Amino acid sequence: MSYHKTVSVKVGNIIIGGGTPIVVQSMTDTLTADVAQTVEQIKLLHEAGSELVRMTVNTEEAAQAVPEIRHHLNQQNCFVPLIGDFHYNGHLLLNQYPECAKILDKYRINPGNVGSSQTSCDHFESIIRVAIKYNKPVRIGANGGSIDTVLLEKLAFQNAKQKLKLSHEELVEETLITSVIENAKKAERAKSSDVEKIFGTSDPMDILKFILENGEVQLTTEQRRKKLEEKRKQIVAILLREAIDPRTSAPHTQARLEDAMTKARVSIDPFKDPREQMTDIVKELRPLLPMKFDKVKIAVKVPAAFAHRCYGTLKSYGIQQEQWASDGSLLAVVEIFGGLQGEFYDKLNKMTTGQVETRLVPNK
Q: The CATH number of 228-285 is which of 2.40.240.20, 3.40.50.720, 1.10.10.900, 3.30.420.40?
């Protein structure tokens, strides 16, 4: 049997393509937020011969559960690569829950499920940037359950004007094929020698990073304005979450931060990651707005009934110590920026109906 020559891709500890043997992948049908059932099913699938396991990550609870699922699998010596299947809100979940983004071994998206025709490019770019940041492969494809309806309508209109019309099944098939091609049409393979000569490497991730960081992107004035505004909001959000006023030990208000940025005429790069710009921005703001980024340690006790649900959230903030008590409750110490305290307490109280216990750990 002959195979189409493909590029090899590493998913966790498994190599796909490039002449390697075919790999078996399966998918869970549990609610991913149900950690115990999902872990059990992944183990059964892996023991039955599945070399990769895919699970739906479609809610905040599911994204929060991913680190805990990986943790329990590792404890049971099950190291099967995990693939996150994202629909519509993948760009949000991957950015809001970095531990989930780091732990998953591959992201799966369909063009029809990334967003509307107006937003899909921005959402797709956001997902790809996260994949580059954590060096994760992305599967782009399509199926009947996630067809691009805008493209389907366009092709249906064109089909109606033709003499030899496609059947409904043929039209759907054409839409699926076109959807994938249009989203991957710029990924045609160049000669390795040419790639090495231009970029100094043939590694796809290194090349993509180089293009995104150094490539020349032509934008209209309106597009540039929108990108600058989006980046500005991201920077303000980080400062709100992480910076505090050393005079009051409380976070600055959004209005105060935005006013200071305007007065200081802060320079923002629309193509650069917000955190990479933060050092220079803080230097420009400090003469007008004192701020510090001290972290605090918080001891947390979560009752057994909420422990599994809260584990992913605590992990995403940064667990320094953890212990599972004999009664099933979770004891943990989390280190967070001082400006995050209000959000942290609110989220845990909401998830545990106010039954979580917390206290600040004094600095030694």
A: 1.10.10.900
